[in-house]
Fold this sequence. Notes:
tt1808, chain A; alpha+beta; 3-stranded antiparallel β-sheet
Amino acid sequence: MDQLQPLNLPPFPFKISDGNGQLTLFDEIRKKHIIITPEEWVRQHFVQYLINQKKYPRSLIKLEGGLRLNGMPKRTDIVVFNPSGKKILMVECKAPSVSINQKVFDQVARYNITHKIGLLAVSNGLEHYYCTIDFNKQNYQFIEELPDYTGSANLRQ
Length: 157
């Protein structure tokens, strides 16, 4: 099944079930079984990457949080908080078949008008882009790698 294609993220031994012809996996964050769509496959891998490789605390990760943009309800894929509740990272996940292009970055930028988060990531599971936002200077800078939670004091404060 192409939904479970290998990604450019570390593999993880998900608990996958096949019920009525639909593959599901247990989402450790939301504590329930989720139907595996291509985007969900990327989201779940990215969450495990954040937890296992980058050491972001599981308890500070929220999936599919709601927001309103121009009066319309929208959903962010992954938002990470620091211990005091400040949003420190937003991740937008796309299916592997979706190219990461200007339209995707524009979507993340629109969402971030509401959130005002200084660290953004965009991934389709194959390509990953990271950038920092300086709201005072009104600019952004792409960075090569996502900072570790433990090694970045500015993320934790």
